[in-house]
Amino acid sequence: MRAVLQRVAQASVTVGDRVVGAIGPGICVLVGICQEDKREDMEYIAKKIIGMRVFDDDESSGSMWKKSVQDKGLEILCVSQFTLYGKTTKGTKPDFHQAMRSAESRQVFDDLVVQLGKLYDPAKIATGEFGAMMQVALVNDGPVTLQLDSRKFSYDAPNATIAAKLSAKNQRRQGFAQEQEPTPSSNSGDT
After folding, report:
1. CB burial class (10 A; 0-12, 13-18, 19+) of residue 124?
2. Cβ 13 vs Cβ 77: under 8 Å
3. For the segment 99-145, what is each residue's pLDDT rounded down to a tens digit?
4. Active site residues
5. CA angle 184-185-186, nearest 5°?
6. Are 70 and 7 in contact (CB under 8 A)?
7. Are 25 and 55 in contact (CB under 8 A)?
8. Are the C-beta atoms of 50 and 125 separated by less than 8 Å?
9. Helix H segments across the chain?
């Protein structure tokens, strides 16, 4: 699961001419769900959203990066966005095959919103409208924008082909580095 978290002064989601979710100061989170995502991925992202310290501690020291949305009692706007799993490595048309299909991802997204409510306060969580064409408006405060990923930035689905390619690439790099190192005979000064 991926999320793009933005610290905002305000944010809203509109569908057609109807505002379906709006918040004041807090965080706006765009959420992408992958085919391989499990409950653990959802729980990890929920904890990160609630606990990420992106706010200043203006009460005591004024130190930066000391408070989370929960610490400050602020709001969260959570918006589903399958395009976070768009692959753009080939050609100019994004490939969304890694994104979970709509029917399954709706349940995972709903579960994420429920989990956020369990960890925090359901009254402080707003959402967009799942599957709708939405207009998301926000005022990014900072700007502060962070990428969260439950797979620790391992963007490719784990499989033997990818592992083999990475292994071969690392071996080539190591071989190149060894070729560049001077040999003892060339540094000895003997001619």
Report:
1. middle
2. yes
3. 999 989 999 999 999 999 999 999 999 999 999 999 999 999 999 99
4. 81-83
5. 95
6. no
7. no
8. no
9. 39-51, 69-72, 102-119, 160-180, 184-187
CA distance 149 to 147: 7
pTM of this structure: 0.77
Which residue is listed with tokens 């390619």? 165
Residue 6, classified by CB atoms within 10 Å of its CB into exposed (0-12), middle (13-18) or buried (19+), is: buried
From CA 11, how far away is CA 175, in angstroms rounded? 51
pLDDT single digits (tens) 52-110: 999 998 766 778 899 999 999 999 999 999 999 999 999 999 999 999 999 899 999 99
SS3 content of the chain, % helix, strand, coil (to 5): 35, 35, 30
